Amino acid sequence: GNTCVTDNEGYVYLAGVSGGSTSTVIASPGAHQTIPSGQNDAFLVKFFGCEGELNVSSSSTGGCFGVSPASASVNVSGGIGYTYTWVPIGGNTNIASNLTTGTYTCFINNVCATDTSQIFNIVQPTASLTSIVISTSTLLCVGETATLTLNTNGGVSPYSYLWSVSGNTTSGIVVSPTITTTYTITTTDINNCVSTATTIQNVDACVGIEEINDIKNEMLIYPNPNNGRFYISEFENNIGKDVEIFNCLGQLVKRVQIESTVQQINFNNYPAGFYFVQISDGGIILNVSKFIKE
């Protein structure tokens, strides 16, 4: 019969039969040769090349929820005649698509009887990546600071961050702008899904209120910030005295007479912003504080 041999370089050869009773067909890449029966010629023909080991590179993505499905792929070099088998989904190409969360293995074989495999651990998000920035103060006077903190939900952690103004790469920053400034943070999850959140940090010069900054503060305002309904608790008995509220320009916008040691204030009809509160008696300022209406 015929003989199949492999040399040191991985090439496979067919050796024919001397004086065979039937014809012998010798195959080679792109061609073949037939030796008539009874012919005694010897021959040695390269059949195909099996050069080196299989080399595999791979890539995968977990996808973004509701936007792009998860996928995985392999790229192979070395040897010839590749076949692919994906487990447990049963695909037979070098790409697997529409994957859900789980572990997948791609088995790769070739005609040189060499094989390898590649394992993929796919994590598919269960919710969209969303983010929102929260400031500790919706309105600042010049020179004051606020902390901007990002709340992130969905996607697949870990996350990476980038703030547009400062270039900071943490989830929170401390800011002290001199003018009203827009801050944007881009969040990217492990699947390269992206969410962008923006906040506007309002700044006011607060002209006209400097003269009351040194007055002692012995009142408690809560909740602060508030939505327009809040309480003032004063440590001394100031029933009958006035609560006066000023905007950042120092303009008096509301006056209420104190009726109890815990005074409820209805401020619903006023715009959001930063306000100062003072307790006065006959024009004499007794206490001063501030609050934010959202």
Quick synopsis:
0% of the residues lie in helices and 53% in strands. By secondary structure, the chain is mainly β.
Blueprint (SSEs and pairs):
Blueprint: E1 3-6, E2 11-15, E3 24-28, E4 31-35, E5 44-49, E6 55-61, E7 70-77, E8 83-87, E9 95-99, E10 102-109, E11 115-122, E12 130-135, E13 139-141, E14 146-153, E15 160-163, E16 172-175, E17 181-188, E18 194-204, E19 219-222, E20 229-234, E21 242-246, E22 252-257, E23 262-266, E24 273-281, E25 284-293
Parallel strand pairs: 13-18
Antiparallel strand pairs: 1-2, 2-5, 3-4, 6-7, 7-9, 8-10, 10-11, 12-14, 14-16, 15-17, 17-18, 19-20, 20-23, 21-22, 21-24, 24-25
